[in-house]
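Hi everyone,

Forwarding the result from last night's run.
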Amino acid sequence: MNIEKANIQDAARIHRMINDFASQGKMLPRSLSEIYENIRDFYVIRQNNMVIACGALHVIWEDLAEVKSLAVTQDHQKRGWGEKLVGKCLEEAALLGIPRVFCLTYTPDFFSKCGFKKVPKEQLPQKIWGECFKCPKFPDCDETALTYSFNEVI
C-alpha cells in the first residue's frame, strides 16, 4: 500500500473516518466542507481502492505547519500506517522549507515516537488558534501540544 495525495473522491470517506473517531472523543470533528476546502493537505493510504488511513499537513505560516486529522481505521491500526503518514507530512514540510511542525493531540505518546516533543500550548504562536473558536471544547482545550523541529534533528 502506498501513501498518495488525496483526491476529491476521498473527501467523504476521510470525513467519515475522522468523525467516527471524534464521536469516540479521540479527535476533534471536521465538517465535510472543511475536508473539501483542505483536500490538497491530505494524504491517504488505500487498500482495494478504499481509504484506510489519512493525515494532513496544513501550512500555517512561513515557519510553521500542522499535522492534523490523522486517522487509521480500527482494523488497520498497529501496523505502522500512522507513523508512515506522519513521516510523509514531515517530508513535505522539509521540501517546503518549513522548519517546525506541530500537532495538537489526545495521543501524545504516538507523536513522541515520531520525534515530536511536548511543549506548553502557550509556546505556539497565536495564529494557530484560528480553528479553536469552532471547537466544541473551546476555550478549555484538553489536547497536548507537540512540535517537531528540523533544526534540532539535523
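The beta strands are 3-5, 42-47, 50-61, 64-72, 100-105, 117-119, 144-149.

Cheers,
N.
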